[in-house]
Amino acid sequence: MNTNNKMILPSKAIICEVAPRDGFQAESEWIPTETKIDIIRQLAKTGVQSMEITSFVHPRAIPQLKDAEEVVTQVQDLEEIKFRALVPNVRGAQRAIDVGIKKLKLMLSATDSHSLSNANCLVKEAQEGFAPIIELGEKHGVKVGGSISVAFGCPYEGNVPEERIIEIVERYKKLGISEISLADTSGMANPKQVYELLGLLTNEFSDITFSMHLHNTRGMAFANAVAALQQGIVHFDSSIAGLGGCPYAPGATGNIATEDLVHGFHEMGVETGINVDQLLITAKDVQRKIGHDGGSFLLQSGPCSELHEKPNTQEKLNT
Amino acid sequence: MNTNNKMILPSKAIICEVAPRDGFQAESEWIPTETKIDIIRQLAKTGVQSMEITSFVHPRAIPQLKDAEEVVTQVQDLEEIKFRALVPNVRGAQRAIDVGIKKLKLMLSATDSHSLSNANCLVKEAQEGFAPIIELGEKHGVKVGGSISVAFGCPYEGNVPEERIIEIVERYKKLGISEISLADTSGMANPKQVYELLGLLTNEFSDITFSMHLHNTRGMAFANAVAALQQGIVHFDSSIAGLGGCPYAPGATGNIATEDLVHGFHEMGVETGINVDQLLITAKDVQRKIGHDGGSFLLQSGPCSELHEKPNTQEKLNT
After folding, report:
1. Overall number of domains in chain B
2. Is B62 in Cβ contact with A317 (below 8 Å)?
3. What is the pLDDT of residues A104-140, one digit of tens each?
4. Is A242 helix (H, G, I), strand (E, B) or coil?
5. Is there a smaller number of Cβ atoms within 10 Å at the N or the C end of chain B?
6. Distance separating alpha carbons of residues B301 and B65, to the nearest angstrom
7. Is residue B280, in this structure, part of any structural domain at all?
8. Out of A1, A221, A230, whose CB is closest to B2?
9. Which residue of B has its CA nearest to A310?
C-alpha cells in the first residue's frame, strides 16, 4: 500500500492553443479567414499565452490553411501571445519568417510508415533534412522546436519502442534543438507508458524541454496529461472545443479540449493563467461558427464550480 | 524531477458491470425485460465476473427497474457471475433476498442536500437506518456492502471535505460493513483528490475494501481510475457502452464505459479477465438495442491493437 498521501504536481502549466492549426486543418468545410481571425482574437482574451497559429505547408497539401500569411498578418497586434507555426520544409520556414513568426515547429514521425505516408521519406532522412531550416531560423533569430508524431503508438506499426524515441531525441539534440513536442497523434498512449517514457527522457535529456500533444481518441488524454505532470512536464498543447479529429478513426474525438484540460488542471491546483469561463464562452462560439465541437466535456457539463439549486421534490435515486 | 521511472500499478483489477442497474435506470424509454436479459447474457460472455444487476426500489420511484424480480430470476443459471443489487430499505432487501441475490449494496449520500433529495433524510439518519438491512443480510448469509454517492463533490454543495467521508466510513465500519463503493456521481472528482482521499482512507481503514464508481462527466474518469490504481485500489464499476447519464447535466457523458476502462487497463498491463473484442461486440449491440451509447470512446476508435493498412498515397500532414 502506498503511504504517501500527496500527489506531487507542478504548481503551474503552460498551455499552447493549437485549434488554429490542428483544429482548422481537420475541417472539411472551408473556414473563412475572418472567422479564423475572430476565433484567434477570442482565444487571446482567455489568457492563453501560446498559440500554434497555422502551418506553412503547400496549399495543395492542406488547402484549409492556404491563408496562413493573411491570418498571421492580421493578428500581429496580439503582442501578448507567443505564436508558433508548423513548417514542413525550408520554403515553409521562409514563408513563416517573412510574416514575422518568431517560433517554428518541425514535423517528424516516430515510425517510418507514418513518415513515408506524411513526408515521403524515412524518419532519419526527414530529420537530417532539418539542418537548413534550423540554419535559417538562427540567421533570423527565430527559435526552432522539434516534434515527434505517433510517439506513443503508430496506427500502422503499433507499439513504438522507447529506444526509437531516444534515438530521435538524440538526433534532435545534435541539431541544436532544445524543445521537443511528443505527440500522441492517434490517441494510443496510456498513462503508465507516458509516465515511464517521460521518466526516461527527462533523466537522459535534462537540457531539453518536452511538451505533450494529446489526442483523446480512446478517452485517456487527461490521464496521460496527469502522468506527464507527475513527471514534472509543464508544457501542453490543447484545442478549443476539442477541434481536430483523427484521420484514422472518422468520428472519433480529436485533441484534448482546452476547456477540459485547463478546468481539470485548475481543479488539481495546477494554474494556467487562463480563465475557464472565458474559454467556455469561446468554445460555445467556436462550436456555433464551425458547426460542431470535437469532443468537449465541459461544453456539456459546465465546470465543477457551477452548482445546482437544491431540488424541492424527491428525485429519482441515482448513485 | 522524479527519478523513479516506473508507475507501480496492481497486476489485476476486478470490474463490476453496472449497466443493468445504473445504465438501464437512466433510460427514459422502457427497456423490455427480454432485452435486459439478453444484454446481461451477452455481458456474461465477456468474462466479467461481477454485475450490479438491478435495484430493488419502489416501482413508482424507478419504473425502469420494476421488473427486478423477473430479471434476476431469469438469469439465475449464470452461476459464474457474482450478482449484486442496490437496495434502499429493508423492503427492497427482502425482495432481493427472496429472489436469491447474495450481495446487497446500500445507498447513501456524502452530503445532506443530496441525501434529502434522494432519501428524504439526513446522511446520519439514513446511515443509522441501515441496521435492520444488515441484520436481515446476516440472517440469510447475504453480504451487505456500503456506498457513498457524491463522495468527491456534490452538485448542490460543491466540495465534500475529506473529514465527512472519514466519518461516514467510520459509521459504516461500526455497522460491520467491510466493502464501500465511493461514487463520483456527477463527475466532479479529479485525480489528485482521488489519490489523496484514497491514500487517507486506505491508511486509516486497512480492513475495508474500497471500490470506485466513476462517471466521465468532465472527461476525468479514466485519470481518476489510474489515480485509484496508484493507491492500490483494484475494484471498479463501469457500464457497457457508457450507459447511464448524469441527471445534473442532460446530454453529458455517463459512467465510464466498460470497454474504455478495460481496454485502458489492459494497455497498462492491468489484467481484468475480460475480453475486449467481446465487450465491443456487446457494446455495439447495446448501442443498437438501446438506440444510443453513453459516451464510449472505443465504439468510435476501436482498440489500439486494431492497426491500419499503410496507405499508398501521400496523406495530409497531421500531427
Report:
1. 1
2. yes
3. 999 999 999 999 988 899 999 999 999 999 999 999 9
4. helix
5. N
6. 32
7. yes
8. A230
9. B156
